[in-house]
Amino acid sequence: MTEVSGLLDLKEYREELIAAAGFSDKSRNHLSPEEIDIELRRVFEAVLQQAGAQFREEVLYRYLLTKGDSLGGEMRNLTGAIAQSKLAGAILNSTSRFF
């Protein structure tokens, strides 16, 4: 059993492994479970080949990067929604003087 196949056999960590492979929640909606399995194996075999003995750390850093980017996107969406609400309120307040 290679290190990659052993890693992919850990079903309780599947969601985290998908994130570590760089797949966002949105991108997962466009792939079947079988396609995800194929891509997980492909990504982690490439990471193992490239990182060698640092494989575990590389997988961890990739996970943190994906999750951090996801959180950043959520915060940008929240900031945009708040700004949109404030802008709409300011426009309504300024135009109410004319009517």
Write the element-wise H/E pattern from the N-terminal end onward: HHHHH
Mean pLDDT: 88
Helix run count:
5
Number of domains: 1
Please give the share of residues in helix. over 70%
Binned strand content? under 5%
Which consecutive residue ranges, at least 5 long each, have pLDDT under 50? none
CATH fold descriptor: Recoverin, domain 1
Largest sheet: none
CA-to-CA gap between the ends? 75 Å
Do you know the CATH architecture? Orthogonal Bundle
Report the top-level CATH class. Answer: Mainly Alpha
What Rg is obtained from the alpha carbons, in whole angstroms?
A: 21 Å
How many beta-strand elements? 0
Shape assignment = elongated
Could you please describe the fold and organization of this structure?
The protein has a single domain, classed as Orthogonal Bundle (Recoverin, domain 1), CATH 1.10.238. Helices cover 78% and strands 0% of the residues. It has five helices and no strands. It has helices at residues 3-8, 14-20, 25-28, 33-51, 55-95. The longest helix has 41 residues, at 55-95. The radius of gyration is 21 Å and the shape is elongated.
Question: What's this, in brief?
Answer:
The protein is mostly helical.
